[in-house]
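Reviewer 2 asked us to include a model.

Predict the structure of this chain.
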Amino acid sequence: MTIGHIILGVAAIPFIYYLLALYSTAHFFSRGRREAVPNTDFLPPISCLKPIKGLDEDAYENYASFCRQDYPQYEIVFCVDRDDPALPVLEKLIRDFPDRDIRLLLGSGRNAINDKVGRLTRLTAEAKYDIFVITDGDVRVRPDYLRTVVSPFRDPRVGAATCLYVSTKETTFVEELQSVGMISDFFAPVMVAWQLDDLKVTFGQSILTTRKAVAAYGGYPVLEDRPADDVYAGRLVAEQGFEVKLLPYVVESVADFKTLSDLFHKRTRWMTVQRLMRPWGHLGLILTFGLPWSLLAVSTEPTRMVALAYLGGYAFFRVAITWTVGAWGMKQRGLWKKMPLIPLWDAMAFLMWVASFSRKTIRWRGVDYFLREGRLVAAERVPAAKGS
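Predicted model (C-alpha cells):
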C-alpha cells in the first residue's frame, strides 16, 4: 500500500463522522417530535436566575420575554452591580411588569475569578424555589419556554437539562458566518455525543437544574475558578448520578461578535479551554475536518474522480448536515443563502483548532491563567487583549 492510498483512506474518515452526525441528528429530532406533548400537569414553581454584567443589545426585549411566560408561578431574579448600565433597564422592567415576581440582587458579594459564577452563587442561595432556570442576559425565549423545559424534571433522576440555541438575527457578515458555523459545525458533535450517550454538558444560554443537583456537587462556589462553568455544571451533575438531558427546544441568543478578529479570538479561547480539559478528545477532532483532508486527498491524487469523490462528498455532507440540523431540526429560515459560507467557516475552524495548540494559558479578564485539574491558576498579569 502506497502513502497515497493511506492518505486517501484517512481522508475518508471525516465522511464516516458526517454520516454518524446525520443519523444522530435525524434520530434526535424525530424522537423529540414523537415525544412532544404539551405540558399541562407538571407545573412546579420555578426560579429564573440571571447573572447580569453589562448591557446586551436588545436587553429589554430579552428580559421581557421571561416576563411573558405562560406559567402559573415563577420568579425572575437578577444579580447586577449597582453601577451596571443594565440597572436602569431592569428597573424599567419591574415598572412595566408589576404583576411579575421580579427581584434585584445588587452585587454578588464574592471575589470570584469567574464573576458570572460568583453571581450564580448568590442567586442559587437566595432563590425561592427548587427548580432553577439559568440564562444569560442576551437570551430571548417564547412564552411556552418554562412549560416545555420543566417537563423532564417530573422524572426525579433528571438533574439538569439544556437547550439548543440560535441567533436572534444576523445583520452583518460576521454574524451570518458565526450563525452558520454554530448550526453546521458546533451542533453536529453535540448530536453525536447525544447518540453515544456521552453528552454530559449544559450550554450557558439555557441551564436547567435543581437545588438538589447543585447541592450534590457542592454548589456554584465549586465553579468560581473554572473557565467553562456551563460545561462543568452539566458534567458535575452527571458525576453525582443524575441524568443530563438535551432538549430539542430552541432559544435565541443575541450575536456578540462584531469583527472577524473578535470571532476568531473568542472561539480560539474556547477551543483552548476544550484542549486543556479533554486533550485526547480535542486531538481526535483532526479526523472530523473534512475540508483539509479532502484538499489533501486531491493534492495527493489530482484526478477528476478523486476530486469528485472527496470535494463533492465534502460539499454534499456539509450541506446535508446544515440543512438537517438547522432547517429541518431547528426550523431556521433563510439558511440556504448562508450555505456558501460553510467552507469559509470550516477553514477558520481548522485554523482555530491548530491555534489552540499554541497556548498553554487562557486569557480571562486581562489575566493569563493555567488550567490545572480543571481550575484556573493565575500565571501573570498582562494587559487585556482586544477580543479576549
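The chain is about 45% helix and 15% strand. The chain has two domains: 3-24+264-381, 27-257. We have added this to the supplementary material.
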